[in-house]
Design goal:
Helices cover 74% and strands 0% of the residues. By secondary structure, it is an all-alpha fold. Helix 2 runs antiparallel to helix 3, helix 2 crosses helix 7 and helix 7 runs parallel beside helix 9.
């Protein structure tokens, strides 16, 4: 796997979100957690590569959803993110197989009933870790997320360290 492609993808996503430091910081934080959890959970190289790629572009649909619908609610950003994610990945030389899986993850990353693999599970956990922090969610939201959505030992450890040891 050419993990240097992910650095080029990060650079391209920073262009996509230019002028919006909050969104750039968001995807970088999600990518950092996804990368770390994936490594700690022992994902194989191919699954880790797909996970990290998806973490970088998971919210690519926010901008087109806002332009088209005036909001970026989960279903809108999922729907509007598939095409630009696929296009960006293919333009950077990612394989068709990677582009297909990542597009699926982008198009479902708020549809928790669709989780079908460790790449998807860890993407959801990484996004929750960042969203819970950025949204200043309370203890109830953290405990609910832990019970309903967290499955990996590494993800649970991060959640507990970030939020539950303080409560």
């Amino acid at each position: 796997m050419d993990f240097q492609k992910i650095s080029r993808l990060i650079d391209k996503m920073a262009d996509w979100e230019a002028g919006n430091p909050k969104r750039i910081n968001h995807f970088l934080k999600v990518w950092g957690y996804a990368k770390t959890i994936g490594e700690l959970e022992g994902l194989n190289e191919n699954t880790r590569f797909t996970l990290e790629t998806a973490a970088v572009v998971h919210d690519i649909g926010i901008k087109p959803a806002e332009e088209k619908f005036g909001c970026h609610d989960g279903p809108y950003q999922e729907k509007e993110g598939i095409a630009p994610a696929r296009e960006m990945l293919l333009s950077l030389g990612f394989s068709e197989q990677t582009a297909e899986r990542v597009s699926f993850l982008v198009g479902h990353h708020h549809t928790y009933t669709a989780i079908d693999g460790m790449d998807f599970q860890i993407l959801v956990e990484a996004d929750f870790l960042v969203n819970l922090d950025e949204g200043n969610r309370g203890e109830d939201a953290v405990r609910t997320a832990r019970e309903k959505y967290f499955r990996t030992q590494a993800g649970i450890r991060f959640l507990d360290r970030l939020f539950l040891c303080q409560l």
